[in-house]
Amino acid sequence: MTNIRSFEIPTVMKHGLGAINALADEARALGMTRPLIVTDPGVVKAGLLDRAAARLRAADLSFAVFDGVAPNPPIALIDEGADTYRREECDGLIGLGGGSAMDTAKSIGVVAANGGSILDYEWASPQPIQRRIPPTICMPTTAGTGSEVTLWAVITDPQRKIKFNVGGTPLIGAWEALIDPELTFDLPPAVTAGTGMDALAHAIECYTCAYAQPLPDSTALLAMEYVAHYLRVAFAQGHNAEARYKMSMAAMLGALSYGTESAGAAHAMSQSAGGVHNVPHGALTARLLGPVMEYNFKGEPEKFARIAVAMGEDIRGLSLWQAAEKAVEAVMKLTEDVEIPSLQELGFGEDEIPMLAEIAYKDPQTIGNPRDLSLQSYVQIYKRAFELGRK
Ligand SMILES: [Fe+2]
Q1: Could you tell me the distance, in angstroms and rounded to a whole number, from the CA of residue 58 to the centre of ligand 1?
Q2: What confidence score (pLDDT) does residue 260 get?
Q3: Which domains does the chain have, with CATH numbers?
């Protein structure tokens, strides 16, 4: 078998402060005459749906709204959204919100174009998605998941108590990512922190995983630099335009480093554990990232040393191994500085370690991790993560 690597995304990326003002023109340019805006109650409360709707009304573009998105969207929610899309006779989608809203919009698109239930499109070989989603614009209101440019959506199956992936094909990619960093100005610090660390986790995991290749490596390194440089500022000063802009770009760049592939152990753990307790994906991933890096650095020391540099560490005079460990330290320090809650504070108990390790081990993202993993490895990483939360 030949080993050919590829990188493909179908999404046009547009960004700028005030980009939301272009929403109606962009929707029309993609051929939408009646988009469905997919959003969540938090975005509505923050007044962002009103801002988007005002732009569409001013341009006489008809639209419908599905504002029932919940965090970690379950199967039934997607299918309900797809019903709304059909009933309202929509011909395009606008995902306005964080990862959950954008994943929901993309997933509604999968069902609208391919029929059935989103459960029919759980990632598998051969790829179950056959047709491209309808014209879709994703407008992120957080800076982290990067769902506006990923080829994935993560859906919760309450029955199996797991999250599963849909996508891995350009057919699910948004037609356009319209990124307006102003929409993130009023995010609470805890959300800024969690989502920003998620962007860092995408970059670090994809950069060090077995699927790494030059193009996504380059976006991953710049994403790390931006997060290291600007996350503390965005956390401390919500209205700092430069920090917010750079964090929005970090989210986009970090997500681009996915390509059509998956992440690594931190995401295998956070995604599986996120099906057990309904907690924010960013904070949970952030809490696991440091301990996973501590476990992983021995596999890819050169890459970890390079991460240390991207994180702003001075590695002059250090041995390769010392430099690699600096990357771990830098990420753990950042996790503390932006006050990410511990696993205990997120509601997990140490008695759950055997179960958590087992579901992480079964997660498909375990493949590609920079260091070989056994069930026992996950027990060890979880133990360390709880230990760090005990002080
Ligand atoms: Fe993530």
Answers
A1: 35
A2: 64
A3: 12-184 (3.40.50.1970), 189-388 (1.20.1090.10)
